Protein backbone atom coordinates (compact mmCIF):
# COMPACT_ATOMS: atom_id res chain seq x y z
CA UNK A 1 0.00 0.00 0.00
CA UNK A 2 2.72 2.41 0.97
CA UNK A 3 4.60 1.56 -2.17
CA UNK A 4 1.53 2.23 -4.23
CA UNK A 5 1.06 5.67 -2.68
CA UNK A 6 4.70 6.50 -3.25
CA UNK A 7 4.33 5.45 -6.85
CA UNK A 8 1.28 7.66 -7.35
CA UNK A 9 3.06 10.61 -5.75
CA UNK A 10 6.10 10.08 -7.93
CA UNK A 11 4.17 9.83 -11.20
CA UNK A 12 1.95 12.81 -10.49
CA UNK A 13 5.00 14.88 -9.59
CA UNK A 14 6.65 14.19 -12.92
CA UNK A 15 3.53 15.21 -14.82
CA UNK A 16 3.69 18.71 -13.34
CA UNK A 17 5.96 21.57 -14.14
CA UNK A 18 8.99 21.64 -11.88
CA UNK A 19 8.95 24.86 -9.88
CA UNK A 20 12.00 27.03 -9.30
CA UNK A 21 10.18 29.21 -6.79
CA UNK A 22 12.74 31.11 -4.71
CA UNK A 23 15.72 29.45 -6.30
CA UNK A 24 18.43 32.09 -6.40
CA UNK A 25 21.25 32.66 -8.84
CA UNK A 26 24.55 33.88 -7.46
CA UNK A 27 27.38 35.24 -9.48
CA UNK A 28 30.45 33.90 -7.73
CA UNK A 29 33.87 35.40 -8.38
CA UNK A 30 36.74 33.15 -7.31
CA UNK A 31 40.02 35.04 -7.06
CA UNK A 32 42.50 32.23 -6.59
CA UNK A 33 42.92 28.50 -7.23
CA UNK A 34 41.84 27.65 -3.71
CA UNK A 35 38.51 29.36 -4.30
CA UNK A 36 38.04 27.25 -7.42
CA UNK A 37 38.70 24.15 -5.30
CA UNK A 38 36.01 25.19 -2.83
CA UNK A 39 33.52 25.68 -5.68
CA UNK A 40 34.42 22.26 -7.09
CA UNK A 41 33.04 20.79 -3.87
CA UNK A 42 29.66 22.27 -4.67
CA UNK A 43 29.82 21.07 -8.22
CA UNK A 44 29.45 17.47 -7.02
CA UNK A 45 26.11 18.34 -5.40
CA UNK A 46 23.41 17.63 -8.01
CA UNK A 47 21.15 20.23 -6.41
CA UNK A 48 23.58 23.05 -7.11
CA UNK A 49 23.61 24.02 -10.75
CA UNK A 50 26.58 25.77 -12.37
CA UNK A 51 24.89 27.33 -15.37
CA UNK A 52 27.96 27.40 -17.58
CA UNK A 53 29.87 24.65 -15.81
CA UNK A 54 32.59 25.58 -13.38
CA UNK A 55 35.53 27.21 -15.10
CA UNK A 56 38.92 25.75 -14.34
CA UNK A 57 40.42 29.18 -14.23
CA UNK A 58 39.52 32.18 -12.17
CA UNK A 59 36.37 33.56 -13.74
CA UNK A 60 32.95 34.62 -12.52
CA UNK A 61 30.37 31.87 -12.71
CA UNK A 62 26.60 31.83 -12.25
CA UNK A 63 25.28 29.25 -9.82
CA UNK A 64 21.63 28.36 -9.17
CA UNK A 65 20.92 27.30 -5.60
CA UNK A 66 17.64 25.91 -4.18
CA UNK A 67 16.10 27.64 -1.13
CA UNK A 68 17.10 24.95 1.36
CA UNK A 69 20.80 25.23 0.51
CA UNK A 70 21.14 29.01 0.19
CA UNK A 71 22.22 29.85 3.73
CA UNK A 72 24.78 27.05 3.79
CA UNK A 73 26.07 28.09 0.37
CA UNK A 74 26.47 31.71 1.44
CA UNK A 75 28.08 30.68 4.72
CA UNK A 76 30.74 28.60 3.01
CA UNK A 77 31.54 31.35 0.49
CA UNK A 78 31.79 33.86 3.35
CA UNK A 79 33.99 31.54 5.35
CA UNK A 80 36.45 31.27 2.45
CA UNK A 81 36.13 34.97 1.61
CA UNK A 82 34.90 34.23 -1.89
CA UNK A 83 33.17 37.22 -3.43
CA UNK A 84 29.61 36.72 -4.65
CA UNK A 85 26.48 38.65 -5.40
CA UNK A 86 22.94 37.53 -5.93
CA UNK A 87 21.93 38.28 -9.51
CA UNK A 88 18.51 36.63 -9.53
CA UNK A 89 16.23 36.42 -6.55
CA UNK A 90 13.59 34.09 -7.89
CA UNK A 91 14.28 31.87 -10.88
CA UNK A 92 10.60 30.95 -11.26
CA UNK A 93 9.85 34.60 -11.96
CA UNK A 94 12.40 34.62 -14.80
CA UNK A 95 10.84 31.46 -16.24
CA UNK A 96 7.41 33.10 -16.15
CA UNK A 97 8.72 36.23 -17.85
CA UNK A 98 10.30 34.11 -20.53
CA UNK A 99 7.05 32.21 -21.03
CA UNK A 100 5.25 35.54 -21.30
CA UNK A 101 7.57 36.89 -24.02
CA UNK A 102 7.37 33.57 -25.82
CA UNK A 103 3.60 33.83 -25.96
CA UNK A 104 3.74 37.46 -27.08
CA UNK A 105 5.83 36.69 -30.16
CA UNK A 106 3.72 36.94 -33.29
CA UNK A 107 2.36 33.57 -34.27
CA UNK A 108 3.44 32.18 -37.59
CA UNK A 109 1.76 29.97 -40.13
CA UNK A 110 2.79 26.34 -39.90
CA UNK A 111 6.21 25.81 -41.45
CA UNK A 112 7.20 29.47 -41.05
CA UNK A 113 9.68 30.68 -38.46
CA UNK A 114 11.12 33.96 -37.34
CA UNK A 115 13.81 34.69 -34.80
CA UNK A 116 11.83 36.36 -32.06
CA UNK A 117 10.95 33.21 -30.14
CA UNK A 118 12.18 29.74 -29.27
CA UNK A 119 10.34 27.02 -31.18
CA UNK A 120 8.96 23.65 -30.14
CA UNK A 121 10.33 20.52 -31.76
CA UNK A 122 7.25 19.96 -33.93
CA UNK A 123 7.56 23.54 -35.25
CA UNK A 124 11.21 22.94 -36.10
CA UNK A 125 10.24 19.76 -37.95
CA UNK A 126 7.47 21.62 -39.82
CA UNK A 127 9.97 24.24 -40.94
CA UNK A 128 12.37 21.63 -42.29
CA UNK A 129 9.53 19.83 -44.07
CA UNK A 130 8.40 23.05 -45.73
CA UNK A 131 11.93 23.77 -46.97
CA UNK A 132 12.27 20.27 -48.37
CA UNK A 133 8.96 20.63 -50.23
CA UNK A 134 9.72 24.08 -51.58
CA UNK A 135 13.33 23.40 -52.55
CA UNK A 136 13.57 19.72 -53.41
CA UNK A 137 16.56 20.42 -55.65
CA UNK A 138 18.59 21.81 -52.73
CA UNK A 139 17.22 20.14 -49.63
CA UNK A 140 16.93 16.56 -48.48
CA UNK A 141 15.57 15.58 -45.10
CA UNK A 142 16.64 12.38 -43.53
CA UNK A 143 15.29 10.68 -40.43
CA UNK A 144 18.40 9.12 -39.00
CA UNK A 145 17.00 7.41 -35.93
CA UNK A 146 14.66 7.61 -32.97
CA UNK A 147 15.17 9.25 -29.62
CA UNK A 148 14.67 7.35 -26.36
CA UNK A 149 11.04 8.52 -26.30
CA UNK A 150 10.67 7.60 -29.95
CA UNK A 151 10.80 11.06 -31.46
CA UNK A 152 12.12 11.19 -34.99
CA UNK A 153 15.70 12.44 -35.25
CA UNK A 154 15.99 14.54 -38.38
CA UNK A 155 18.86 16.02 -40.32
CA UNK A 156 18.79 18.33 -43.29
CA UNK A 157 21.21 18.08 -46.18
CA UNK A 158 21.77 21.17 -48.26
CA UNK A 159 23.51 20.66 -51.58
CA UNK A 160 23.42 22.43 -54.91
CA UNK A 161 24.60 19.29 -56.70
CA UNK A 162 27.97 17.71 -57.40
CA UNK A 163 27.16 14.06 -56.71
CA UNK A 164 28.27 14.02 -53.10
CA UNK A 165 31.82 15.00 -53.95
CA UNK A 166 31.98 18.41 -52.33
CA UNK A 167 33.48 19.08 -48.90
CA UNK A 168 30.95 19.00 -46.07
CA UNK A 169 30.45 21.31 -43.13
CA UNK A 170 28.55 19.46 -40.39
CA UNK A 171 26.53 21.61 -37.98
CA UNK A 172 24.46 20.62 -34.98
CA UNK A 173 22.79 22.11 -31.93
CA UNK A 174 20.62 21.27 -28.99
CA UNK A 175 22.57 18.35 -27.57
CA UNK A 176 22.03 20.05 -24.21
CA UNK A 177 18.29 20.40 -23.81
CA UNK A 178 18.07 23.70 -21.96
CA UNK A 179 20.43 25.69 -24.21
CA UNK A 180 17.61 27.01 -26.37
CA UNK A 181 19.69 29.56 -28.25
CA UNK A 182 21.67 26.72 -29.91
CA UNK A 183 18.80 25.30 -32.02
CA UNK A 184 17.79 28.90 -32.79
CA UNK A 185 21.30 29.55 -34.14
CA UNK A 186 21.28 26.40 -36.24
CA UNK A 187 17.85 27.27 -37.67
CA UNK A 188 19.20 30.70 -38.57
CA UNK A 189 22.08 29.12 -40.49
CA UNK A 190 19.58 26.93 -42.39
CA UNK A 191 17.42 29.98 -43.01
CA UNK A 192 20.32 32.00 -44.42
CA UNK A 193 21.65 29.20 -46.61
CA UNK A 194 18.24 28.58 -48.16
CA UNK A 195 16.17 31.72 -47.84
CA UNK A 196 18.61 34.60 -48.19
CA UNK A 197 19.85 35.64 -51.59
CA UNK A 198 23.02 37.09 -50.01
CA UNK A 199 24.22 33.69 -48.83
CA UNK A 200 23.72 31.73 -52.03
CA UNK A 201 27.47 31.53 -52.56
CA UNK A 202 27.73 29.48 -49.36
CA UNK A 203 26.04 26.49 -50.97
CA UNK A 204 27.93 26.57 -54.27
CA UNK A 205 31.12 24.77 -53.26
CA UNK A 206 30.17 23.21 -49.95
CA UNK A 207 27.52 20.68 -48.90
CA UNK A 208 25.95 21.11 -45.48
CA UNK A 209 24.66 18.46 -43.11
CA UNK A 210 22.70 20.08 -40.32
CA UNK A 211 20.86 18.86 -37.23
CA UNK A 212 19.00 21.64 -35.37
CA UNK A 213 17.89 19.61 -32.33
CA UNK A 214 20.02 16.63 -31.35
CA UNK A 215 18.20 15.87 -28.12
CA UNK A 216 14.49 16.42 -28.84
CA UNK A 217 13.23 14.54 -25.75
CA UNK A 218 15.22 16.79 -23.45
CA UNK A 219 14.35 19.88 -25.49
CA UNK A 220 10.61 19.19 -25.25
CA UNK A 221 10.96 18.42 -21.55
CA UNK A 222 12.47 21.87 -20.96
CA UNK A 223 9.41 23.39 -22.62
CA UNK A 224 6.79 21.27 -20.85
CA UNK A 225 8.20 20.35 -17.46
CA UNK A 226 11.66 21.40 -16.33
CA UNK A 227 13.24 24.53 -17.84
CA UNK A 228 16.72 23.54 -16.59
CA UNK A 229 16.85 19.96 -17.85
CA UNK A 230 20.14 19.38 -19.67
CA UNK A 231 20.39 15.64 -20.32
CA UNK A 232 18.57 12.99 -22.35
CA UNK A 233 15.38 11.44 -20.94
CA UNK A 234 16.42 7.78 -20.63
CA UNK A 235 15.25 6.07 -17.44
CA UNK A 236 17.73 5.60 -14.64
CA UNK A 237 17.49 3.64 -11.39
CA UNK A 238 17.45 6.78 -9.21
CA UNK A 239 17.70 9.73 -11.58
CA UNK A 240 16.88 9.93 -15.26
CA UNK A 241 18.97 11.12 -18.16
CA UNK A 242 22.55 11.08 -19.38
CA UNK A 243 24.67 14.04 -20.42
CA UNK A 244 24.87 13.27 -24.14
CA UNK A 245 27.95 15.45 -24.46
CA UNK A 246 29.85 13.10 -22.11
CA UNK A 247 28.50 9.93 -23.70
CA UNK A 248 30.72 9.65 -26.80
CA UNK A 249 33.21 6.83 -27.04
CA UNK A 250 36.37 8.89 -26.88
CA UNK A 251 38.09 9.03 -23.49
CA UNK A 252 34.66 8.22 -22.08
CA UNK A 253 34.25 8.81 -18.31
CA UNK A 254 37.52 10.76 -18.20
CA UNK A 255 38.01 14.15 -16.48
CA UNK A 256 34.88 16.31 -16.31
CA UNK A 257 32.49 13.35 -16.38
CA UNK A 258 30.44 12.01 -13.51
CA UNK A 259 29.46 8.42 -12.78
CA UNK A 260 26.64 9.65 -10.54
CA UNK A 261 23.31 9.16 -12.31
CA UNK A 262 21.91 12.29 -10.69
CA UNK A 263 24.71 14.55 -11.89
CA UNK A 264 24.23 16.92 -14.81
CA UNK A 265 27.47 15.57 -16.29
CA UNK A 266 26.61 11.86 -15.89
CA UNK A 267 28.42 10.11 -18.77
CA UNK A 268 25.98 7.16 -18.87
CA UNK A 269 26.28 3.44 -18.04
CA UNK A 270 28.35 2.79 -21.19
CA UNK A 271 29.67 4.86 -24.11
CA UNK A 272 26.88 5.51 -26.63
CA UNK A 273 24.26 4.20 -24.21
CA UNK A 274 21.91 6.90 -25.55
CA UNK A 275 20.13 6.34 -28.88
CA UNK A 276 20.65 10.03 -29.71
CA UNK A 277 24.46 9.92 -29.42
CA UNK A 278 24.77 6.54 -31.12
CA UNK A 279 22.68 7.75 -34.06
CA UNK A 280 24.68 10.99 -34.30
CA UNK A 281 27.97 9.10 -34.26
CA UNK A 282 26.79 6.95 -37.17
CA UNK A 283 25.77 9.99 -39.18
CA UNK A 284 29.07 11.76 -38.52
CA UNK A 285 30.97 8.62 -39.54
CA UNK A 286 28.93 8.29 -42.72
CA UNK A 287 29.88 11.80 -43.88
CA UNK A 288 33.34 11.89 -42.30
CA UNK A 289 35.28 11.13 -45.48
CA UNK A 290 34.31 14.54 -46.85
CA UNK A 291 33.51 16.49 -43.68
CA UNK A 292 36.14 19.18 -43.18
CA UNK A 293 34.50 20.99 -40.30
CA UNK A 294 32.28 20.04 -37.39
CA UNK A 295 30.46 22.81 -35.47
CA UNK A 296 28.41 21.96 -32.40
CA UNK A 297 26.38 24.83 -30.96
CA UNK A 298 25.89 25.25 -27.22
CA UNK A 299 25.46 28.03 -24.70
CA UNK A 300 26.39 29.93 -22.61
CA UNK A 301 30.16 30.29 -22.20
CA UNK A 302 30.52 32.70 -25.14
CA UNK A 303 33.53 30.86 -26.51
CA UNK A 304 35.06 28.96 -29.39
CA UNK A 305 36.24 25.68 -27.91
CA UNK A 306 38.49 23.31 -29.81
CA UNK A 307 39.90 19.93 -28.71
CA UNK A 308 40.70 18.61 -26.30
CA UNK A 309 38.22 18.48 -23.47
CA UNK A 310 39.77 15.46 -21.78
CA UNK A 311 43.32 16.76 -21.42
CA UNK A 312 45.14 20.05 -21.19
CA UNK A 313 47.40 18.97 -24.05
CA UNK A 314 46.75 20.58 -27.39
CA UNK A 315 45.90 18.70 -30.60
CA UNK A 316 48.36 18.59 -33.56
CA UNK A 317 46.74 21.40 -35.54
CA UNK A 318 46.00 23.65 -32.56
CA UNK A 319 47.61 26.62 -34.31
CA UNK A 320 45.29 26.25 -37.28
CA UNK A 321 42.24 25.79 -35.03
CA UNK A 322 43.22 28.83 -33.01
CA UNK A 323 44.02 31.22 -35.81
CA UNK A 324 40.90 30.29 -37.76
CA UNK A 325 38.79 30.91 -34.66
CA UNK A 326 40.50 34.27 -34.16
CA UNK A 327 39.61 35.28 -37.69
CA UNK A 328 36.02 34.14 -37.30
CA UNK A 329 35.63 35.86 -33.96
CA UNK A 330 36.96 39.09 -35.44
CA UNK A 331 34.10 39.05 -37.93
CA UNK A 332 31.62 38.71 -35.06
CA UNK A 333 33.12 41.50 -33.00
CA UNK A 334 33.12 43.80 -36.04
CA UNK A 335 29.30 43.77 -35.98
CA UNK A 336 28.65 45.11 -32.54
CA UNK A 337 31.73 44.66 -30.38
CA UNK A 338 30.70 41.28 -28.93
CA UNK A 339 33.76 39.30 -27.86
CA UNK A 340 34.06 35.52 -27.60
CA UNK A 341 36.89 33.69 -25.85
CA UNK A 342 38.97 31.20 -27.81
CA UNK A 343 40.89 28.15 -26.67
CA UNK A 344 40.89 24.46 -25.98
CA UNK A 345 37.87 23.24 -24.06
CA UNK A 346 39.93 21.89 -21.16
CA UNK A 347 42.08 24.99 -20.86
CA UNK A 348 39.59 27.83 -21.11
CA UNK A 349 36.38 26.27 -19.81
CA UNK A 350 36.58 23.03 -17.92
CA UNK A 351 37.50 19.38 -18.40
CA UNK A 352 34.88 17.53 -20.45
CA UNK A 353 35.50 14.00 -21.73
CA UNK A 354 33.39 12.08 -24.21
CA UNK A 355 32.09 15.17 -26.02
CA UNK A 356 30.86 15.05 -29.60
CA UNK A 357 33.63 17.52 -30.53
CA UNK A 358 36.47 15.41 -29.14
CA UNK A 359 34.96 12.33 -30.78
CA UNK A 360 34.52 14.07 -34.16
CA UNK A 361 38.16 15.13 -34.01
CA UNK A 362 39.72 12.06 -32.42
CA UNK A 363 37.58 9.19 -33.76
CA UNK A 364 36.14 10.59 -37.00
CA UNK A 365 39.30 12.55 -37.99
CA UNK A 366 37.51 15.84 -38.64
CA UNK A 367 40.37 18.25 -38.11
CA UNK A 368 38.35 21.44 -37.75
CA UNK A 369 36.08 20.63 -34.81
CA UNK A 370 34.63 23.29 -32.56
CA UNK A 371 32.12 23.63 -29.79
CA UNK A 372 30.52 27.02 -30.31
CA UNK A 373 29.33 28.45 -27.01
CA UNK A 374 26.78 31.21 -27.54
CA UNK A 375 26.19 33.95 -24.96
CA UNK A 376 23.94 33.74 -21.90
CA UNK A 377 21.02 36.08 -21.29
CA UNK A 378 22.95 38.88 -19.67
CA UNK A 379 24.10 38.56 -16.07
CA UNK A 380 21.08 36.91 -14.65
CA UNK A 381 19.14 34.91 -17.17
CA UNK A 382 19.89 31.53 -18.64
CA UNK A 383 19.01 32.05 -22.28
CA UNK A 384 18.64 35.41 -23.95
CA UNK A 385 15.18 36.92 -23.91
CA UNK A 386 13.45 36.00 -27.19
CA UNK A 387 13.70 39.58 -28.44
CA UNK A 388 17.52 39.32 -28.32
CA UNK A 389 17.81 36.11 -30.35
CA UNK A 390 18.13 37.82 -33.70
CA UNK A 391 21.06 40.03 -32.65
CA UNK A 392 23.10 37.04 -31.48
CA UNK A 393 22.38 34.69 -34.37
CA UNK A 394 23.08 37.32 -37.04
CA UNK A 395 26.42 38.22 -35.43
CA UNK A 396 27.43 34.59 -35.18
CA UNK A 397 26.53 34.05 -38.80
CA UNK A 398 29.32 36.48 -39.72
CA UNK A 399 31.71 34.10 -37.95
CA UNK A 400 30.22 31.12 -39.80
CA UNK A 401 30.85 32.91 -43.11
CA UNK A 402 34.55 33.06 -42.27
CA UNK A 403 34.53 29.32 -41.52
CA UNK A 404 32.80 28.61 -44.83
CA UNK A 405 35.31 30.73 -46.73
CA UNK A 406 38.23 28.88 -45.16
CA UNK A 407 36.86 25.41 -45.92
CA UNK A 408 36.05 26.51 -49.44
CA UNK A 409 39.53 27.92 -50.05
CA UNK A 410 41.34 24.98 -48.49
CA UNK A 411 39.30 22.05 -49.72
CA UNK A 412 37.05 22.71 -52.67
CA UNK A 413 38.70 22.14 -56.01
CA UNK A 414 35.78 23.05 -58.21
C1 LIG B 1 9.46 3.28 -28.24
O1 LIG B 1 8.92 2.36 -29.17
C2 LIG B 1 9.25 1.01 -28.90
C3 LIG B 1 8.76 0.16 -30.05
O2 LIG B 1 7.43 0.46 -30.37
C4 LIG B 1 8.62 0.61 -27.55
O3 LIG B 1 8.98 -0.72 -27.24
C5 LIG B 1 9.17 1.55 -26.48
O4 LIG B 1 8.54 1.27 -25.24
C6 LIG B 1 8.94 3.00 -26.85
N1 LIG B 1 9.63 3.84 -25.87
C7 LIG B 1 9.04 4.79 -25.16
C8 LIG B 1 9.87 5.47 -24.15
O5 LIG B 1 7.87 5.10 -25.32
C1 LIG C 1 44.23 16.04 -40.16
O1 LIG C 1 45.43 16.29 -39.48
C2 LIG C 1 46.32 15.21 -39.49
C3 LIG C 1 47.48 15.53 -38.55
O2 LIG C 1 47.68 16.89 -38.37
C4 LIG C 1 46.76 14.96 -40.93
O3 LIG C 1 47.64 13.88 -40.98
C5 LIG C 1 45.52 14.67 -41.77
O4 LIG C 1 45.87 14.52 -43.12
C6 LIG C 1 44.51 15.76 -41.63
N1 LIG C 1 43.28 15.36 -42.28
C7 LIG C 1 42.68 16.10 -43.18
C8 LIG C 1 41.40 15.54 -43.74
O5 LIG C 1 43.06 17.19 -43.53
C1 LIG D 1 24.35 46.14 -30.50
O1 LIG D 1 24.58 46.61 -29.18
C2 LIG D 1 23.63 47.52 -28.72
C3 LIG D 1 24.10 48.03 -27.36
O2 LIG D 1 24.60 46.98 -26.58
C4 LIG D 1 22.26 46.85 -28.64
O3 LIG D 1 21.29 47.75 -28.19
C5 LIG D 1 21.90 46.34 -30.02
O4 LIG D 1 20.69 45.60 -29.96
C6 LIG D 1 22.99 45.44 -30.57
N1 LIG D 1 22.71 45.06 -31.91
C7 LIG D 1 22.77 43.81 -32.33
C8 LIG D 1 22.52 43.57 -33.77
O5 LIG D 1 23.04 42.89 -31.56
ZN1 LIG E 1 26.08 22.69 -23.64
From TrEMBL:
One of its GO terms (biological process) is proteolysis. Residues 1-15 form the signal peptide. It is found in: Secreted. One of its GO terms (molecular function) is zinc ion binding. Residues 117-407 form the Peptidase M14 domain. GO terms for cellular component: extracellular space. It holds the Pfam family Propep_M14. Its cofactor is Zn(2+). Involved in the digestion of the blood meal. Belongs to the peptidase M14 family. This is Zinc carboxypeptidase A 1.
Amino acid sequence: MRLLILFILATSATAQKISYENYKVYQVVPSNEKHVEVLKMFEDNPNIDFWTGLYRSIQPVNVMVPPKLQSKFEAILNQHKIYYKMVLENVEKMINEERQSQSEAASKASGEISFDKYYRYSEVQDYLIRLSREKPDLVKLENYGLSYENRTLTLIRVSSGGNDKKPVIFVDGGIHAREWIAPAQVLYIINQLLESSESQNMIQNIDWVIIPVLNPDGYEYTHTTDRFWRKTRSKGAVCDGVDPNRNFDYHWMGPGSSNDECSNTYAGPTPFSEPETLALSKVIKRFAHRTKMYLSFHSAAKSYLYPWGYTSELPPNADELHSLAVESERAISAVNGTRYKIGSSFNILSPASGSSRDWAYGAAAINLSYTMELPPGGENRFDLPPEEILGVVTEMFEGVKVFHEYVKEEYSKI
